[in-house]
Every structure is written in C-alpha cells, then in structure tokens.
Amino acid sequence: LERKLLRELSFLFAVVISGILLEDKFWCSNC
User: Fold this and answer.
1) pLDDT, tens only, 1-31
2) Which domain holds residue 31?
3) What predicted TM-score, i.e. pTM, was given to this entire model?
4) Residue 28 confidence (pLDDT)
5) Other Cβ atoms closer than 10 A to 6
6) Structural Rg of the chain based on CA atoms
7) Beta strands in 1-31 (DSSP E)
C-alpha cells in the first residue's frame, strides 16, 4: 500500500514538474 502511494506521489510530482517546465517554455517563447 505504501509503495503504491509512493509511486502515485512520484508520478504526480513528475506531472507537476513537467507542467511547470512546459509553462516556462511557453512564457519564454512569448516574451
């Protein structure tokens, strides 16, 4: 159970980080 939760948390963290990076690229291409 803990291992599954940890995997889901790390996946969510990766999604958030990639989303932030994509947003930064988007804003930089428009500045």
Assistant:
1) 799 999 999 999 999 999 888 887 777 666 5
2) 1-31
3) 0.58
4) 67
5) 10
6) 14
7) none
Question: 1 to each of 10, 12, 14, how far by Cα in Å?
Answer: 14, 17, 20
Residue 12: strand, helix, or coil: helix
Distance CA 10, CA 17 (A): 10
**How far apart are the C-alpha atoms of 21 and 15, rounded to whole Å?**
10
Say how many domains are in the chain. 1
Residues for the chain: how many in total? 31
By three-state DSSP, how is residue 1 classified?
coil
DSSP of 1-31, one letter per residue? -HHHHHHHHHHHHHHHHHHHHHHHHHHHHT-
